Description:
This protein has two helices and six strands.
Amino acid sequence: MQQEKRHFQRVGIHLSGQLITGQGVAIPVEVVDVSLQGLRVARLPAGVNLPAADKVGLNFKANEDSPAISLSGEIIRLGQTPDNSESSEAGLRITHISVDDLGLLRRLLLLNSGQDDLDATELETLVDKITASMPSV
């Protein structure tokens, strides 16, 4: 039995976004699920070359009136979209997000998860992981 590696709940969502490759190419995508640690994007055009560990940027909005959420990440998985062989999808691990954008992402997750305890439990886990990764002074 495979042990679950995820520390954060993923929330299904369908938002338009823009993936910026390491070469600076902007690709329209659909954000299909998101967590405080990573997300999955779909509708990548066939033939897009995104090797594993490739550094990318992503911008998306919760709705047209909200501010954009911007983050940096790395590709951890690339595969075919189950319902469309003409496009692919990618899994991203968030490597950098500003405090303001993290707040927007956290609010988006909370509003779309339907769980009141998502906020405290996952935020505490995230803070612990960030603290553990900081260099000792």
